[in-house]
Amino acid sequence: MHPVLVSFGPVVIFNFSVCLVLAWGVFSFLFWRALRASGTDEDKIFDLTFYATIVAFIAARIGFVVTHWELFADTWLKIFALWVQPGLSLYGGILGGVGTLIYMSRNVKVRLGLVLDAVSHALPLAILIGLVGAFLDGAVVGKIADLPWSLRVMGLVGRRHPVALYEIVALVLVMLALSALERRAARNKKPYGIVGVWFFMLFAAVMFILELFTESRVYWTLTANQWVLIAIFAESLGAMYVRGGGRESVRPLIHKIYAKFSNKRSV
């Protein structure tokens, strides 16, 4: 792996740090562009981005600390010193950032569906850039596997699964699928937010599978990331039920069943 981008004496610039900053910049721009195209006021977009960024960073750090507590056992001060003990959790950041956007959308009076669709425009590419940094840094450790000799010769991988590389390829496929789903949603006049829900469902399902190749601590038969991904998928499934018209299609059936039993009781 190649964690260092460039160094000037004592000053070292890491690939992962550069990719994180670039990922934030790409997300902010694409998120702003998507909401601006829908007519959202720029002050509201700034508020959403600002607070989501702060909470996402804090949540990402908390997520890493909770799942790697042994690294901070000697002193809790290292929690705040990223230059001493670096580490951020992708899924902690996603939960914190997206959760803040959902909460703030009501406060700043921006339609939640528009926010979710804007996230689906901005977040995939931002995550992809972050994964490139993680691959170069070797931050994601895969399980030991008998990988092709050709890959080792090219220096792409070692004896372990290159999970970050798998995730990059998978996310590209998710982005292609999302593009097709977006065109379909526009053609069929699907409600706002449905594309965002599709993204989180696909993302959670794919990343859950790839976690099987990751060297990670297990909690009740699953890794911490897998439990988070199950929660994301479940919430997305519920949102799909609501936004996709499931509630409206089920409601008449419930009324029929209720009327049928009411008639029986009256007889």
Describe the structure.
With 267 residues, this protein is mainly alpha-helical. Helix content is 68%, strand content 5%. The strands form two sheets. Strands 1-2 form a two-stranded antiparallel sheet. Strand 3 (218-219) and strand 4 (222-223) form a beta hairpin. The radius of gyration is 22 Å and the shape is globular. The protein starts with a strand and ends with a helix. The model has no long low-confidence stretch (mean pLDDT 85).
| Strand arrangement across the biggest beta sheet | 1-2
What is the string of helix and strand elements? Answer: EEHHHHHHHEEHH
- Note the beta-strand portion: under 5%
Query: What percent of residues adopt helix (DSSP H or I)?
Result: 55-70%
Low-pLDDT windows of residues:
none
Count of alpha/pi helices: 9
Q: Over the alpha carbons, how many angstroms does the gyration radius reach?
A: 22 Å
Biggest beta sheet attributes: 2 strands, antiparallel
N- to C-terminal distance: 76 Å
Question: How does the overall form come out from the CA principal axes?
Answer: globular
Overall average residue pLDDT = 85
Q: How many strand units?
A: 4
Secondary structure topology:
Elements: E1 4-8, E2 11-14, H1 15-37, H2 42-67, H3 90-107, H4 112-137, H5 149-153, H6 163-187, H7 194-210, E3 218-219, E4 222-223, H8 224-243, H9 246-266
Helix pairs in contact: 1-2, 1-4, 2-3, 3-4, 4-6, 4-7, 6-7, 7-8
Descriptive tags:
267 residues; single chain; 9 helices; mainly alpha; two-stranded antiparallel ribbon; two-stranded antiparallel sheet
Summarize the structure.
The protein is mainly α and 267 residues long. It has 9 helices and 4 strands.
